[in-house]
Design goal:
Chain lengths: 314, 246, 267
């Protein structure tokens, strides 16, 4: 069971990697966007699915990394080779501070703090026009050229993003399957027991938060490279909500859940917005639908369905 | 002589109510001590202060001579303090073996390792299987804890606590909710714990508990009323008053 | 008013009602539209408050009730609802702000000592204090208030002594929503009704409740004044960094007292 699943995934990745050869540019770009969403949703899943901490403010890390990279490029004239690690580092540092603040509470208190923090950053992005150019956003940005490869070409950017996505998912998988990962899941399920067993629950949660902010920052860099433009709306609550939807729709607490969820949401958004003017309203209805009728997410529900078809108990 | 556990003038007040009121306890190494008392007497609150979940309003807790009153609760297992809970809170969606592995990791530096895969072939799993064998559940190693009976879960929980090789073991009503046979089984299990581990137990089941205990402390409204060996406590007039009302 | 509604709902039902900002906004819109069509502000306010209260009741009864016990689900549901509500307002009333004119009798400023105060804002202040007092009396002195307090303290125990939980929940949600709607209605002449009002107001409510402390309406009351002052002065003095100024006291308080100024520990 496990082996043919891994084989299936390998095939899917292979087929995906060949996309630029058989798909036109529109689809390649869409796929790049989906991959960025996959990284972002997976980073959020570390918090929501594995640590059991529902955050509504994750988008701020995407935005922070994007803005830092853009600002350093424009105002300090630095190369991407410098701005990328710098943006990642600074965003992760901010993640450490925000994590410390937000983890002063758990559950709903944590949720409210993450929301408040993200709204503050969003508000800053809008109002601090001198730095962020406010509602006009920062434009005229460039994509990096790692090892001289021009990422302005869609297929190159796609392969670059695919590589990074696989690396990130691989790292997240390592973390989740390690002893530390087991302890993260433990704090989600029985924090009191974990404390009694000798684990520092707060520290585990904090490290998870910081890791999530790091991967969120990676998504942020790819985001700003793709669009070559950054606007405060990327940190609005809608973005955090969308990524939360990706995680939950796919199935939190699994590695593949956010992958499916992100792909689903990006495709939905892309096609729905052609027909429906009010994407937010659709998002709201989808939220309600999933939360009420499919609480375990689509992946888990389908896996159960497939298992029962195969004669096994779900 | 250093006591395994020494509690001095331990007080815990919630608002105006003293849930534990100037409790003094001295438990020698290897001893089997039983704490009894009617519901609401403050027994679990006492435990929670010993394990560090609750900070006392005043007084001290010393384990083998070391003052642990303000030591964070997660540091105490590393000093040899383990406990079980009145309401079992195991990891129901994980296998029995994984539960034990988590306990083993809790006191091991390996728990910080974020990059090596934790696999079933690990040495930790071998150790976990040994522990499960000691509670006669090796056949259930791959079963999910949530699907096991309450008695089996209690056995695993004690296995968890023992896997951390505690010097001081606190058992909070280990027999609660168990059938008669399960109780006897757990009683034997507890009796087989080596003397290198000091045991303090809260229990209501008098038949089983009294046989086990060498020292008994009776708590009532947060105060230590009677203390001594079995005969002393059982025949004490105050005991009869508290339990029988006259 | 906005925050007390949120605090009531969160304190009793442990639901972080993310639709709250949207309810405020719809209240503002209803008032704006009614006033635009000739209704007096007074009746428009009342109409807004009542309709939002009813809306709140419907939300609680048909959506949140189905998710009872699933607090993450409830939060996400209210989030979804807030999106639906926000887009609905856009669809129904367009993207331009609808101004709500201050009633004529409040247009001339009041002169006290040497300063002149905008009359309408004093009126709102007075109403807020009256509402706070009424709320206080309701919670502390009436039977329903006692039931609410019991529920906030320990819902299971309250149920055990016979307090009708579902009735209480619906009532509290209606009350909370009504307060938000009234807040929006009264705020109409000050803020106008515009899309995005919900996103502007919700974080304020959150900050107030976190700062004031969960489980304490008094804390909410005090905190809303603090937050109001800081926000207003912040916007006037350092408009670019108003959010940060708002944020700092919350961070400082949370750092030293995670349960807020007057609250109990958030469970």
């Amino acid at each position: 069971m496990k082996n043919w699943r891994q084989l299936l995934i390998l095939c899917a990745v292979f087929v995906l990697a060949l996309l630029p050869l058989y798909g036109d540019e529109y689809f390649v770009n869409l796929a790049s966007q989906a991959l960025i969403a996959v990284i972002f949703a997976s980073s959020l899943n570390l918090l929501v699915g594995y640590a059991g901490l529902t955050s509504l403010g994750h988008a701020c890390f995407l935005g922070l990394a994007a803005y830092l990279s853009a600002w350093m490029g424009i105002n300090l004239g630095l190369e991407h080779a410098v701005t990328a690690p710098a943006a990642l580092l600074l965003t992760t540092l901010i993640g450490m501070v925000f994590g410390w603040i937000a983890l002063r509470a758990t559950g709903l208190g944590f949720l409210m703090l993450t929301l408040a923090l993200s709204q503050i950053v969003w508000g800053l992005a809008y109002r601090w026009v001198a730095v962020t150019n406010g509602d006009n956003g920062l434009s005229g940005l460039t994509r990096p050229s790692p090892f001289g490869i021009d990422l302005e070409v869609s297929s190159h950017f796609f392969w670059f993003t695919l590589l990074i996505t696989l690396v990130c998912l691989g790292l997240i998988r390592q973390i989740v399957q390690s002893a530390f990962g087991a302890s993260i899941k433990g704090t989600r399920d029985q924090p009191r027991r974990m404390t009694a067993l000798g684990y520092n629950v707060w520290a585990i949660r904090w490290f998870t938060y910081v890791a999530a902010s790091f991967f969120g920052a990676v998504a942020g860099l790819l985001y700003v490279y793709f669009h070559k433009f950054i606007h405060p709306s990327v940190m609005a609550i809608t973005m955090s909500a969308e990524s939360l939807l990706c995680v939950i729709a796919g199935g939190s607490g699994t590695l593949l859940g956010p992958v499916f969820g992100a792909i689903l949401v990006v495709i939905l958004k892309n096609y729905a917005s052609a027909y429906i003017e009010r994407w937010n309203m659709l998002l709201g209805f989808v939220f309600l639908f999933i939360v009420i009728f499919l609480p375990k997410g689509i992946v888990s529900s389908n896996l159960n369905f497939l298992k029962s078809k195969a004669g096994k108990k779900p | 002589m250093t006591f395994a556990l020494e509690v001095k003038n331990l007080c815990k007040k919630f608002g105006g109510v003293a849930v534990t009121n100037n409790i003094n306890l001295q438990i020698e190494s290897g001893e089997r001590c039983l704490i009894i008392g009617p519901n609401g007497a403050g027994k679990t609150t006492l435990f929670n202060q010993i394990t560090g979940e609750l900070l006392p309003s005043s007084g001290t807790v010393e384990v083998y001579g070391k003052d642990v009153t303000y030591l964070p609760p997660q540091a105490r297992p590393h000093m040899g303090l383990s406990r079980t809970f009145q309401i079992i809170n195991l990891f129901n969606h994980e296998t029995a073996a994984h539960n034990v592995v988590l306990a083993l990791l809790g006191v091991s530096r390996q728990r910080f390792n974020a990059f090596r895969k934790l696999s079933v072939t690990d040495e930790l799993y071998e150790q976990a299987l040994e522990i499960l064998k000691s509670v006669d559940l090796s056949s259930s190693a791959t079963r999910k804890v949530g699907e096991m009976s309450y008695g089996e879960q209690r056995r695993i929980e004690i296995g968890l606590a023992m896997s951390q090789k505690p010097k001081l073991l606190l058992l909070d009503e280990p027999l609660a909710g168990l059938s008669h046979d399960e109780r006897l089984w757990i009683k034997d299990l507890i009796a087989s714990i080596p003397r290198s581990t000091t045991i303090v137990m809260i229990e209501h089941d008098m038949d089983v508990a009294l046989a086990f205990a060498e020292k008994i402390s009776l708590l009532h409204y947060g105060t230590l009323i009677v203390e001594g060996d079995r005969d002393t406590v059982v025949n004490h007039p105050k005991t009869k008053e508290i339990y029988l009302g006259h | 008013m906005l925050s007390s509604g949120f605090a009531l709902i969160f304190g009793l039902m442990r639901i972080a009602n993310l639709t709250h900002g949207a309810l405020f906004m719809i209240g503002a819109y209803i008032t704006a539209v009614l006033v635009r069509n000739g209704t007096s502000l007074f009746f428009a306010d009342i109409a807004a408050m009542l309709s939002i209260a009813v809306l709140g009741g419907l939300i609680e009864r048909f959506i949140l009730r189905r998710l009872s016990g699933n607090s993450q689900g409830q939060v996400l549901a209210t989030l979804g609802l807030s999106f639906i509500a926000a887009d609905f307002c856009l669809m129904a009333w367009g993207g331009d702000p609808i101004p709500v004119s201050t009633p004529v009798m409040f247009q001339t400023p009041i002169h006290l000592l040497d300063l002149s105060f905008p009359t309408y804002r004093l009126v709102v202040l007075t109403i807020a204090v009256i509402i706070a007092t009424l709320l206080y009396l309701l919670i502390e002195r009436t039977k329903i208030g006692a039931m609410i307090r019991a529920g906030v303290d320990d819902m299971n125990m309250a149920r055990a002594v016979g307090i009708p939980a579902s009735f209480l929940f619906t009532t509290v949600f209606c009350l909370g929503a009504g307060l938000a709607g009234l807040g929006g209605a009264l705020g109409g002449p000050i803020f106008n009704a515009y899309p995005g009002l919900d996103a502007d107001m919700l974080p304020l409510a959150l900050i107030v409740v976190i700062l004031g402390g969960v489980g304490s309406l008094f804390g909410t009351f005090v905190a809303s004044f603090i937050v109001g002052f800081i926000y207003t002065f912040g916007i006037a003095l350092v408009p670019d960094l108003a959010y940060v100024i708002l944020f700092l006291p919350m961070v400082i308080v949370i750092a030293f007292k995670p349960q807020g100024l007057f609250g109990r520990v958030i469970t």
